[in-house]
Amino acid sequence: MDQEMLTKANLTKEEIDELCRSTEELIDMSRSVAEANDHAILEKYYKDALEADVFIRDSLNFHPVLHAVKTAIEVGKVISPDRCMLLAVLLSPLTRCGILSRNDVLNNWGKETNDLLEGIENVASLYEKRTAVDTDNFRKLLLTFAKDIRVIIIMIVERYVVMKAINHHPAQNLVKEVAYEAKYLYAPLAHRLGLYKIKSELEDLSLKYLNREIYTRIAKKLNETKVSRDAYIESFIAPVKKSLEQHGLNFEIKGRTKSISSIWNKIQKQNNDLEHIYDLFAIRIILDVPKELEKRDCWLAYSVVTDMYQPNPARLKDWISIPKSNGYESLHITVMGPDDRWVEVQIRTKRMDETAERGVAAHWKYKGIKSENNLDIWMNRVREILESAGNDPQQLINDFKMDLYKEEVFVFTPKGDLFKLPLGATILDFAFNIHSKVGSTCIGGKVNGRNRKINHKLVSGDTVEILTSSNQTPKADWLSFVVTSKARNKIRQSLNEKRMHQAELGKELFYRRCKNRKVEIEESELMKIIKKLGYKTVTDFFVDVADEKIEPLQIIALSEQIHQKEDAKSEVKSAEAFQLIQDADETDSTSDVLMIGENIKGVNYKMAKCCNPIYGDNVFGFISSEGVIKIHRDDCPNAANIKMRYPYRIIAAKWSGKSGQHFTVSLSVVGVDDIGIVTNISSIINKEKDVVLRSIAIDSHDGIFKGQLLVGIADTSRLNELIKKIKTVKGIKDVQRIK
């Protein structure tokens, strides 16, 4: 890139020099995978962005262009250069600053690069939640959002680049935040993927930034003992090397000091000081052998070492017979070396060493390596795909879909706390997951700032705020949409508690009424009555008593009938005295039928408001919980439900004598909107004898007249006559009695 342009682009001289060097290194590295126009197109967009000065430094004051180039170089070192991965890293600053659209990426570099870029942006969006990154749930959500294993590798490498650059950075709080994130999120992910070199360096740098005093003390001590330690390693290796050569093995042998973080962990674990930590270094034997001879030669090398130095059987770790779930294969032994010092020896092949150093990506060069380890489901799935990918590493990585947690969703609270729920979980499931009381009083929620109903299904990444009300209680229909066992159990428990409470209230009410009437009903007798009424349990009966669906006085009356053995057809004078269980159709006696009319006295009845019966309608009586008989029309909208649920409270009824009073009837009138139509209807009603117009409500829309009339009328015959006359009014289309 042009030096003058870079100078104008908010870059220091040191940054410009570093950017130029890094760019040349990256171009050289990517020659084998780059396509003809990649460099030219990228350079054009970067020039446009630099000239427009649209790049914004991040919170650590890193320039995004230099940071992207350095990250791309490290990605190429960690993994065999992958064109799409390198492009995604380099394009990310351009899309973030708006100089390049995702559509441009799709057109110039294809869907695969665009998908990787989307994964990087998705993962970046998680950090806006500011949640705790050191949780297993966050790692799982990170993998869910990434959608591609290469995005995770890019994110690990990007953090590694940051960690190397922030030594002595002035913003120490930010440095510690980045170090904490690297220690608890990216180092474990690097370990899971077998990126041991990066994992080790991330841990060392994290210790350095989080506890510089400890780091410096261990580093200083190691430096002071370096000469003697190197001499000891050489004295240990020399006889081993000679013996391996005598056995005809082709190998490389080297010694290394363990990482500072590893030594610090040992100090803490053993509750010891540095002077008493003996296994500060490890010897590694790397065999260059064909795949079919790997196990044999590794065990041969093991035999050579253990014949020379006494092994500690308790420290033998055989990851050759059964590799680790992340692909790691090696044979670890600890032996007593010269001067009675314990030394760890690692034996592996070149293929195994590359896998260990470079992780899962190293598998791209080796196929057909069978794994029998099923300890880690996540990495087993990775390996299965890796091992079945044939000879095309790009196809291998494309086929790896990050759907490991497709049966789970991860959602945030407004404060950034992260929760895991099963797929299909609703706002109500989330509320119960937080606390039973929150779930029981939940009335809905805000998902990503928008109001949602209680049964709204959540997706990974949602931020959910629960809305509650002290008046809310669990409902039976909640069980139809919650999916978590906790929510189901708590709802059922609450409903059962509420039901038992209602039953206790009903029981107390029932026996209080019995006491007021000075009536004693034996429990066995009550059980017979309850069974006769169709109840399956005593609880169901007492709940209905509490809900006033059945009147205690009716049970008392039935009990008295049983005791007195009176005729089941005795005359009924009040609602309390009516026979509860009877079938009016089974008898011809008029004493079984409630007679209603103007001159009937001594019977407490009312006309039901749901259907407004009038003289001449076919009717029946229903004993209400208040002890009043409600008179309903046979075609009442509620008739079917009443007769099905409470057959024992139904009484046959019919009109007595002649009509002598006015009943209220509602009529619906529909017609063409016309001047005078209301006047014409009113005129007809006023001319009718014994018919009173009590109210009229009208509505007119798009030329259609709709009205509702309330009239007082004596019987059905006069009502039918009135309807016929209203229909004769010009423009009237229909007249119906409202049920």
Structural class determined from secondary elements = alpha+beta
Radius of gyration: 43 Å
Shape: elongated
Biggest sheet architecture? 6 strands, mixed
List keywords for this structure.
739 residues, alpha+beta, six-stranded mixed sheet, 47% helix, elongated
Question: Could you please describe the fold and organization of this structure?
Answer:
With 739 residues, this protein is of the alpha+beta class. It starts with a helix and ends with a strand. Mean pLDDT is 80; it is low at 361-380, 382-404 and 566-591.
Compact description:
This protein is of the alpha+beta class and 739 residues long. Helix 10 (196-210) crosses helix 11 (212-224) and helix 20 (485-516) crosses helix 22.
Give the secondary structure arrangement, pairings included.
Layout: H1 3-7, H2 13-30, H3 38-52, H4 64-78, H5 83-96, H6 102-126, H7 136-146, H8 149-165, H9 172-192, H10 196-210, H11 212-224, H12 226-246, E1 251-257, H13 260-270, E2 281-287, H14 294-308, E3 310-311, E4 317-318, E5 331-337, E6 341-349, H15 350-358, H16 377-387, H17 393-399, E7 408-412, E8 418-422, H18 427-434, H19 436-440, E9 442-447, E10 450-452, E11 464-468, H20 485-516, H21 523-532, H22 538-546, H23 552-564, E12 594-596, E13 605-607, E14 619-623, E15 629-633, H24 639-645, E16 650-655, E17 663-672, H25 677-687, E18 692-701, E19 704-713, H26 716-727, E20 732-737
Parallel strand pairs: 2-6, 12-16, 13-15
Antiparallel strand pairs: 1-2, 3-5, 4-5, 5-6, 7-8, 9-10, 9-11, 14-15, 14-16, 17-19, 17-20, 18-19
